[in-house]
Amino acid sequence: MKILLYISSIIIIIFSGLYLYQENIAPEWRSHQLTYIDMLEEKSDPETIQASYSFPVKLRQIYLPEMNRVDRCVSCHVTMEDPRFEKEENPLMAHPGEYLEKHDPEKYGCTICHDGQGRAVNWKDAAADEPDVYWTTPILRKPFLEANCYHCHVDLLKETPYYSLGKQYFETGGCLGCHKRDGKGGYLGPELRGLGDASSYIKFPVKDFNQNTFTQLNYNRNLAYIFESVRFPGAQPEETLMFDFKFSDEDARAITVYIKSLTAYPDGTQRLSQKPVSALPFIKKGQETFHLYCTACHGKKGKGGVKNPNYAKDYIPKLNTLSEIMFLYKVEDRNAVISTLETFGDLLDADPKPDFRGFFKAIAKYMSVKSIILNGHIVEKKDSDGPTPINMPTWEKSLSDDEVFSVIAYLISLYDQ
Amino acid sequence: MRKADLEETPEGAIKRSLVNLARLPRHLKSSVMRHGAKDAGRLKSQLILSSIFLHIHSIKTHRFSLRWNYTFGLGIMCIGLFAILSLSGFLLMIYYKPDTAQAYSSIKDLIYVIPSGRLVRNIHRWAAHLMVIASFLHMARVFYTGAYKRGREFNWNIGLALFVLTLGLSFTGYLLPWDQLAYWATTIGVNIAASPTELTDALNITGFFDIGTKLKHLLLGADQIANDALIRFYFLHCILLPFFMTLFVAIHIWRIRKNGGLSRPDCIDEEWLKGTPENNKVNNATKSGLFQHTDDSVKTKRSDAENLVHSIPHAFLKEFVAVVFILAITVALSSLFDAPLKEPANLFIPENPAKAPWYLVGIQELVSYSAFMGGIGIPIIGLFVLALIPYIDRDKGAIGIWFENKTGIRVTKLSACYALICCVTMLAFTIVFGWLRAWFPDIPQFLIILINPGTILVLMFAAWSLFVLQRYDSIRMGAMALFTCFFIAVIILTYFASVHRGPNWDFYWWPSLWANH
Amino acid sequence: MQENVDNTKKSGITRRFFMGWGLAIVIGMASLAFFLLTVLRMPFPFLLPGKSGRFKIGTMADLPPGRTKYFEDDQVYVFSDQDGIFAISAVCTHLGCIVSKDDNGFVCPCHGSRYNLEGKLEKGPAPKDLPWYSVSRLPNGQLIVDKKKSVKPGVKFI
Q1: pTM here?
Q2: Residue A238 shares a structural domain with residue A159
């Protein structure tokens, strides 16, 4: 009994002591701050030597209750705003670039741009990017960091080339034909808004789909999932309607950056936009709408050539021949129809009606095209037991009438090109 | 010290107040202790007689009760763990914020920047686990030594209530960190509570008597686990259940004292007293009554009076050792293994497998056959039988002896083997061949509630118990057989469900074989 | 009741008992005490939630002599004159109201305490002058005011 008491007491003392040591003497931030003090003395500027004496070694944090954030990164990164430490190694490196001048860390904190776990006070947990542990927001590195700029900024920034490229791909590739962005778009694929918020556990890529890629994405499961879906749509799930667009790794990365920026939470900040949105010319608007919604299936400029699995005619119809179908061979006729669409909207509402001979023939075709766009179209199967081919979705709810007319006008205008 | 009050007091109220102020330490001491210094024997007696805390023991303790391998100190370890849990719980409450938006981050803060926060959280977690184990073993100890007999029947039931409260406290604490583990384990637990709906559905009376959903709403205050549920669990965990726990612990201990201390055999073998503190003082006085205990020089009427030793220091010391020992285990475990904290709770992505806390996975295994029978039926039958045992088993058997006699040992061994074979066979059968629903897809749910692996196991155990009852013509043996079966079944089901059940509640040989999620 | 403090009457068994156990009990108690000290640190946090009290006020170029700025979030007036830059608290030392500035100094709306332009108390119930806060320069040229550090009135940052 006595022995048991001795042993137990010693165990209590040892383990309590060990804990106190770990918590108070061993932590990383402590050694970083001590190194900082040493380096300050080396820098031999009389004023700063004074500063090193008044620099207490202690935990530090940036407290941002309105964003429910507490960023303790500053416990180690104490030299963040000190230009003299520009050339030092992390964590005692000055923040590169001029970002902190416009984004006062006291007001914005760190994780709002970099992600990671701001509450943690050791690098491993703060970075939160271990391969086999599921963290909510692993730290973002270049170029994926760009995505977070657009949680607040709306206009393109010159510092974010990947994002700009990704956005361009997205908006000319017809992604919205199947996906929704901010609640607008098709319904064949999943909604993309909030996909970038998906903490790592929400969507899982196939873990070993490409270990190399996974490593390049810093073990960030959210990024890996987005990247994989863009680069290898058939990887998971295997039965997907999404085409393999054969993006290069670099392009897929740019698109990943763009999709990562699609957040459902504005982080407690306001969207910043400087440029007023100007109204586009009618045809241009049709082109933009077509790029956003249609190019994925009907091809760039409506040239077609996209294979539809198990579709009786194999290829999704091309649309750049709409003018011919509507018997609008003459430039004047086309322009008349386009300007009628622009002025009156629906051709049926035109008053006065354009005065050319084929107008009533054109209007019949126009009616059927409009009906297919608005109500969709179920296509014929090649093999009646095979999988369902991609059907033309209905756009009645997602596209405004104006957008539909402008797309038709754009398709008519494609005749020459 | 009463003399102190009679000491000369000077004239004048101011002087008197000043004198009283000077005497404050002495008066304070006497007001707490109620007596001054005494000779050793009387001091020890008075200490106990006059202190509410020390009075839980009688002045003298029987040497037999101090045998470490009679009780293994399990009861006092439970008390110790409860104290550790209370202390760590108070400290955690300082920082914890019971709100779904902040609960998770307050736990993160505890882990990263609160002084000793991680340690205290780990201690709270580990002490809770240890308390479930210790109270379970304590119950087994009390059962196998027959300590529920002769006036202790009620205390056995108080003990049972304490066990249920322990599980309740552990379970309600599980939700508070608001991580995935917490959320989904609690979901399972709450759905077990809601499982009477299965029975009322089968009886087709859910329309006007939906007790399952009522229970669920009582626990959650909503259909889903959300802020209301968090507050309710917080209240249960921090106020209601600890209140009853404290009350019942007090009754439990008070009853032990009133029942004459720990149970012990009528005739004590010298062999059993080896290693316990000796009292070689010859007692020759003849006083009786309350004073028989107060002085070493007073002889008691009891035949084994020479085997009584002063509770101070002997009993208190052993208890001190037990408490320090359990604290050492808790602190060591807490330093070595961190309490888990997964991602913040996500209402849309279930954990797979979503397992209840480990002490409830045995029940979860039964629930996988039939929600009502496994979750409510069998546990209630089990508790009911446990509660009844002391009232049925009123044989004049020996108490205070492990397994009573050689037959008892044999019965226990046989029952353990029997229960082991039954459980393993039943589990293997269910895994390989499935159950009724797999063979007759249209079978009414009512039949499955009645006939499922859980109920069959219960019937097998009951049959075995009746057989033993008949064979040895002893209620005690029958009870022992039944309790052993229950004890083994709990262990096997808990082990099986924790280790061999993986995603989708499928069978796996080892958790490492679970498909990676 | 008798008063008996003669310890020698303790029975031999007890004394022997304590001789053996004495050290063990002391160590046991010590371990409990150490454990309690370890966990009872918990109510005293390393980091306090809330503002750090340090805030940036811009560079020297933003504060030419003659300039006065009020920082509403932190309730501090920052002045710049020929001798340098200085920061004065806008919280009345009486009962914590926010003082307002006029040409002659500060006046408290609650109980009419008056301070001159240097924060010196002129009249009213307030017990002392408005405190001056330390102004210093970060290595990147930004000036910061630290509300945790007071300086003597008249100390200006050049």
Answers
A1: 0.83
A2: yes
